[in-house]
Amino acid sequence: xxxxxxxxxxxxxxxxxxxxxxxxxQIYIPEINWILMCLCxxxxxxxxxxxxxxxAYGLAVSTVMFVxxxxxxxxxxxxxxxxxxxxxxxxxFFGSIEMLYISASFIKVAEGGWIPLVLSGICxxxxxxxxxxxxxxxxxxxxxxxxxxxxLALGPSLGMVRVPGxxxxxxxxxxxxxxxxxxxxxxxxxxxxxxxxxxxxxxQVPSVSDEERFLMGRIGPKEFRMFRCIVRYGYKDLQxxxxxxxxxxxxxxxxxxxxxxxxxxVVPSDKPSSEFGASDTELSSLPTPVFPSPIxxxxxxxxxxIEVMRPQAGGLMECSITRDESVEILKARExxxxxxxxxxxxxxxxxxxxxxxxxxxxxxxxxxxxxRGPDVILNVPHSSVLEVGMVYYV
Length: 394
Fold this sequence. Notes:
A hairpin with a 7-residue loop joins strand 5 and strand 6. The longest helix is centred in the first third of the chain and has 30 residues, at 114-143. The chain has 394 residues and is of the alpha/beta class. The protein has 12 helices and 12 strands. The chain crosses the membrane at residues 27-47, 59-80, 87-107, 113-130, 151-171.
């Protein structure tokens, strides 16, 4: 249940260990096991009465039975496509019996039955606040995405410079530039020679092959040297992070650049330029490449000043632009790779009600500080981490 809640952004991020390659739901969560151990010890040592523990257990079990019956009635209507009357009869028959048990258990609330009520209330508050806070942060990211026009407009005024190296910017957005990049470029108008916006996605399969792991695309004109990479992991791959991730990523970028160069070769060299329909492109897979499909709606001009080379080994001809870009990417790799992570803090607006301020500024902030961060999940080396702090007003 905690794993499903984490997938739905209804619970803080925890460490989930999948113990089977065949059964998806066979998992182990160390944090939850420790919490359950502490709760069991607290209830046993605190109550010291088997009758009170039995009252708490009876109320919990009878309530779970009634909730299961209610959910089963929804399954009859939605999944089995049965009539509403049949689901009503099912709920009335079994629900009335279970309500008798619940009513009998509520008499014992003062004698230990309050324990499951308090625990369920705490869990409900945590789930609701976490879901509300993450939803507002995601809406903030969508509303404050940085457009390519803004970067082009801010560049000359801020005097942006490119420093040697490759910058990997981790973000949850698969389209557009994240707000942390605009915040970083505004306060420090210098970024790496090659920028790669990395988005990690988990899929419900045990493992993803190396050929299907990376989805590459380009952001903006070629001279920007900005790429987008969507990395897909299976639930077993997340615990087996390869130490050569940087090497694999650079090789995929070089392969993507070569594929673009081969596509450019089909265009006559007397045309000075060609206009593509998007500034952000994506390939479905590298072994059987398809020409990039548009993601964003802005336009990009790709210079096709091509110098036709003589056939090389294997009968391939390369574009001089592609060759120069590949050399620059390799030089940037030798200069080093930096991992740029967003360290965002959600804060309620001054005009927000007192209850919202308490939920966001205290509860959600506490949960955010104590949950697993992206640097731990992604196994990022600490010596190469660059955190960008940003306040989200929700």
